[in-house]
Protein 1
Amino acid sequence: MTMTDKTKPIGLYIHIPFCRSKCPYCDFYSFSPREELIDEYTKRVCEELKNTHHTFDTVYFGGGTPSFIGEKRITEILGNVAFTNNAEITVECNPSDTGDKERSFDFSALAQAGVNRISMGLQSSSDSERRALGRRAGKDEVLRAVERAQNAGIDNISLDLMLGIPGQTAESLKGSVDFAVSAGARHISAYILKIEENTFFGRHPEKYSFPSDDETADLYLKTAEALKEKGYIHYEISNFAVPGYESRHNLKYWKLDDYLGTGPAAHSFIGGKRSFYPADIKEYLAGCERICDGEGGGEDEYIMLSLRLREGLDLDKYEERYSKTVNPGFTEKCRLYADRGFGSFDGRIFSLNSRGFLISNTVISELLAELD
Ligand code: SF4
């Protein structure tokens, strides 16, 4: 078990469980609230953060839609957070809340409060594909929102793309990638659409024409290729960044660093222990405690998370961390996958490339089967 050094800054995730409406593919904990509920929620989050003894070097407002609560409440929450001078502070924004001047979402106020990174859901630059995903803003509105953030001095912009959207083609995807790059996104996340049973897509798949699994895999590889040509590093299965713009906050999840999560459905990992708040705003507002979720950071998890990253699994670090030696069957598997063109292995560091990321579940389960 790892002991926590309380003087060491950790990550902070703040869940904002509100959205204007529900997207047809989404199964996150979020809903459309009354105005008074947002105020009550803001107050509870502020109280909780004021009383925490931690210092944070990354802060991430995720959701839900953080921009939906407006910049005043976001800055109020940040006013209760002890963050370091060089902290990376990200706010997820929906262009529908922020794109038009008349809606007066004030990016400058966010920048003054310390926000230095904005993450926006572009999903696609094709308005018909965006509509299929239930997105109200068109691509012009997305562009205006990005420009307004940049003009406020926030140049670290991350845009999300989605792969496997109904009607998506290699050509429309190329348009989306080019759009994100030319908008100045320093970080691009490309997620493969997963149809969850309890969503509108999951209940009515017959209404849509989704690309097949093979077509979606091809879209993934095309995205990786196009972004590589533009100078982005494919540093994690679903994430690409101009060097130096990798998400410091998300890297904490993948590197098993400590983070505190607040809000319903938010998870924490501190001192080797996992915990979470129930996905129920009433319980959260009533002051419920986090539920313990046992020990985390075991060797299976370490291997799985390391192989999500381009830097891969360093066997020296693994052996030191878990006081053991990997057996020859494990290294043979690493060599085999490297020889087949799915990654590289120099005898001590095994990493997957874009083709390898596509089959990472298979690779990981084969490697885990080789552990003693
Ligand atoms: S905006 Fe995001 S969190 Fe909200 S419903 Fe849509 S996908 Fe889900």
Note: The domain at 10-253 is CATH 3.80.30.20 (pyruvate-formate lyase- activating enzyme).
Protein 2
Amino acid sequence: MPKLAILGGTPVREKPFSPWPIWREKDVEAVGEVIKSGKWGTRGPKVEEFERKFAEYCQCKFCVSVTSGTTALYLALWIAGVEPGDEVIVPPYTFIATANAAAMLGAIPVFADVDLDSCCLDPYSAEALITPRTKAIIPVHLAGEPANMDYFQLIKEKYGIAIIEDCAHAHGSEWRGKRVGSLGDVGAFSFQESKNLSSGEGGAVTTNDEELYEYAFSVHHVGRKRIGGAWYEHVILGANMRMTEFQAAILLSQMDKIEDEFRKREENALYLDSLLEKIEGIIPQKRDPRVTRRAYHLYVFRYIAEAFAGVPRDIFLRALSAEGIPCAAGYGLLSDAPVFSEGNFGPFNKLLKGEKLVREPLTNTKILARESVWLFQNMLLEKSDMDDIAEAINKIRENLDELKAYAERG
Ligand SMILES: Cc1ncc(COP(=O)(O)O)c(C=O)c1O
């Protein structure tokens, strides 16, 4: 039986996984073209072309590009009419920006539980928390798996609440043949460095609603009219949330490989599912049968310590990393972050102090925060690498006595 790498044995793999981001000479040329054009700012030809192409990619009528995914969420809630004192229902298993976007408008983020299979916001839990103050709900398509959009669309119809899709992990995913970003009122995307489509930093909102589009355009452009206004004519409150020509040039250049990488990740992740499902104590994130195409920003599985002789998750993570498989514990329970648990809302402290953000036990989120293991999207680009991941986990299983003793030594 080969010795575990964490105990001095040879690792399953020494070869690194695919680098990320992946750049080619054509990306360098695209940036060079912007430099030479002298048009470095925004609302130039690259930004315009990117918005057109990205709207098309998301099967949406409209797109407004912005500086980050956080800005996209903030802008989405702004145009959905969220005001100070309103409530916005969010999952507690997500990046902090999902909830911050609400707090940044003086609204109250209210945490509903997630579904244990999909790891996405549970619409039944969200519905149970709706009050007359609820203005918006933000389902996050976690790791690329679309949330239950059938039910969120019903909630929208029944209660007239805006549905803002957080698509930061899910560029190109589909629910019943329709792309994320086109399924709610507004979609919010991130192009931060680790994302499946990246320009280092960047973001976008997508919508099929022309009025929301016009509003988003004005707000992100310091309140200017989209067409016909003078430069110093500011008709509504807005801010500079604009993407630069540099970011748009990189995104346009990178878009020619998004489909090929998408297909590889999806095929390889399904293959990895088939390998990991056979291992006792490993439960991969489940795919809803209504999901017709799935992006993988992360590969998420639950690690059941009891099935691994009680070896704690952090020791498992260390052992897996030592075998040459990068991995992480991922998100904790977001509502425990001091910003929320202590109500440290900066300029909105007075408004929000004393509000209860957690109104239910969040049982499934606590399980995920305790048991999840994350692998990263760049690890899913080569099929043979999936065999290494499974082999490393199987090797750990075969050496549980030694690993348990190691854990007990501390
Ligand atoms: C689920 C989710 N939402 C929103 C964001 C915010 O995006 P950005 O980092 O571009 O502001 C991220 C970024 O990591 C994210 O993972």
Note: The longest strand covers residues 298-303.
